[in-house]
From TrEMBL:
Residues 1-19 form the signal peptide. It comes from the Bacteria. This is Fe3+-hydroxamate ABC transporter substrate-binding protein. The lineage of its organism: Bacteria, Bacillati, Actinomycetota, Actinomycetes, Micrococcales. Residues 22-42 are annotated as: Disordered. Keywords: Signal. Residues 25-42 have a biased composition (Low complexity).
Length: 196
């Protein structure tokens, strides 16, 4: 399957991530409860042991067998997109990194506005899960089902903050990948994340 086609909706959804947020709290929609998700209890995840990705602002380690694939979406490079190059189930699990156009956003803003924005981009089954800690900051964790060209998959988004900027890290997985498996892959990367 084409990575470009499969990730088109993912890029759209991640690109819309809190575009309207600023340093002020996002308004609460009457149809969307604003109760913040609690931070999850500390769970130890083994760090990824594949290639190290180094950008100007950050570095992190990929899982074994992941790298920059042929057919990656336009506008992404080795520091902002990677995929499981050994995936054989018909969908190449991948991750992408985008800078939030809203600057620094809080977990509360993500949980209040992010669900509606993902739904507005066509995602379904959108949920705010327990927050995580990565690279010294607390991050909201949103998950959703996305479908592009009749290909369904699921995303997990994390929002890491440094120096007044939020980086949206989106992991895209096969539709039937269980949450525990997706968490393990994402956390194996996030525990290696360092700011430059």
């Amino acid at each position: 399957m084409s990575l470009r086609r499969a990730s088109a909706a993912l890029v759209l959804a991640a690109g819309l991530g809190l575009a309207g947020c600023t340093g002020q709290s996002a308004p609460t929609s009457p149809s969307t409860p604003a109760a913040p998700a609690p931070e999850s209890e500390a769970v130890e995840f083994a760090p990824a042991s594949g290639d190290t990705v180094t950008a100007e602002q950050y570095s992190f380690t990929l899982p074994e067998g992941w790298g920059f694939p042929d057919g990656a979406p336009d506008g992404f490079d080795e520091t902002t997109f990677a995929a499981d190059l050994q995936d054989t189930d018909g969908y190449s699990d991948n991750l992408n990194i985008l800078v939030s156009p809203g600057g620094e956003v809080t977990s509360e803003q993500v949980e209040q506005a992010g669900v509606a924005e993902l739904e507005g981009a066509g995602a379904t089954e959108v949920k705010a899960l327990d927050r995580v800690t990565a690279a010294g900051s607390e991050s909201a964790h949103l998950t959703a089902r996305v479908e592009q060209s009749d290909i369904p998959y699921v995303i997990d988004q994390y929002y890491l903050v440094d120096a007044g900027q939020t980086y949206i890290i989106t992991f895209s997985s096969s539709i039937d990948a269980p949450q525990a498996e997706r968490d393990a892959v994402a956390q194996s990367v996030l525990v290696t994340w360092q700011w430059s």
